[in-house]
Design a protein that fits this description.
It is built from 4 helices and 4 strands. It is of the alpha+beta class. The N and C termini lie far apart (about 55 Å).
Length: about 120
């Protein structure tokens, strides 16, 4: 909410967003039609909502690379980090920066979905 309040939003719009995010709950339905008990939702992006991707952009607005050469691409609840070979900051340092940001914002980095890809161009013969 503090990040939202930093934007120049009209009070009714800010209040609507706060109401939209407050007191949310979810349940699960099994294949045989049984329902779980309701569980409160305390974090995450609301899937299939028009506001979800925009709220993620607000949330991640203060997530920055350590190096001006490195790049981040953010969409919905995903962040991609691009670290070129000639960077002045190691990829592990940049990833540590993302993990610290996630911790300080009450989020979790899913290491099972985290991958690194090394791309290189073949030298012409």
């Amino acid at each position: 909410m503090s990040k939202l309040s930093a934007f120049d939003l009209l009070p009714p719009i800010l209040n609507w967003i706060i109401a939209f995010l407050t007191d949310r709950a979810q349940l699960s339905k099994t294949p045989d039609g049984q329902f779980s008990i309701m569980h409160p939702i305390t974090r995450s992006i609301i899937q299939w909502s028009g506001t979800g991707p925009n709220l993620w952009l607000v949330m991640a607005s203060d997530l920055r690379c350590n190096s001006d050469i490195d790049l981040q691409f953010k969409y919905a609840d995903d962040t991609n980090l691009l670290v070129p070979e000639n960077t002045d900051v190691d990829m592990a340092v940049e990833f540590g920066n993302i993990q610290r940001w996630a911790d300080s914002n009450g989020m979790v980095t899913n290491l099972h979905k985290t991958k690194d890809i090394v791309l290189h161009r073949l030298h012409p013969r």
